[in-house]
Amino acid sequence: MRKVLFLISLLSFILITEAQNFTRPGDWKKYRKEIFVTGGTSNFLGDLGGRDQIGKDYSPVDLELSQTKTAFGVGYRYKLDTWINLTAKFNYLIVKGDDALTQEPFRNNRNLNFKSNIFELAGRIEIGYQSSKSRNRYGIKRTLSKRTKGLTHAAFAFIGVGGFYYNPKGRMSNGKYVKLISLHTEGQGLPGGPKKYTNYSVCIPIGLFYKCTINKQWSVGLEAAWRKTFTDYIDDVGTSYYDPIALTEAYGPLSATMSDPNKGLIYGATSPDGSGVAAQRGDRQKDSYVSVELTVGYIFKQKRKRARLRSKF
Q1: What distance in Å separates the CA atoms of residue 72 and residue 90, rounded to the nearest whole number?
Q2: Please, are residues 28 and 77 in contact by the beta-carbon 8 Å criterion?
Q3: pTM of the prediction?
């Protein structure tokens, strides 16, 4: 996290010192406001699924590409200066994870899975560089040709804060999905168990985007973002296994079944050790998720104010 913030700060310092190549001073002020839509893919970095190895926290190396799902978004951007923007964005993403897809022995034997829809609303500050070029082309036949505008290229880094809603569901043996939060699969609310978690949490989106603006009003680009979150339960997996008998008595047999559907390939992997310490079900590192999206935007041109005629009397 510190490294990311340092790089963003360094990039900001360098870009602030860069001169903008606008054709007229203050020309950018006419094009401050932009709305845009995004569409692309999303993936999950957490306890479940992953590659054929021990999990690596927050590492793209652990992404299970077969679980890549859909992401859509809509946003509003306001340009404070040529090198800094304020942006608000709403995103809808789907994330999934499945231990059955990894060949790492302990994770595969654990045999947990989940899927969740994420509804995210975030604000962010964007710092970067935008170049604007314009030139005149003269024809030699009959008359001068019309002036044509060049393309604007922009590259920005961003960081922000937002909130999101999630609701993990697990797949049962019959293929149907059931909501997991109400099953308290790790003994949430029971003696010795963790606190109950909610469907809401906070995220910090960090990322980059590039866009090309055509005739100063239409833009197309690419955006990549990673979210640090403050919950470990996007996948309903956070701490340790809980006594299945206690789960059955408190929340019903389905709670115990969804808590521990292990394959039985590793003896005692999900049972307490000799001293009674519960077996690990997940790590305590917070979950995260990523998205890569194409963007299309429309930039509003500020209307000219009518000049007021002042009376001499």
Answers
A1: 9
A2: no
A3: 0.82
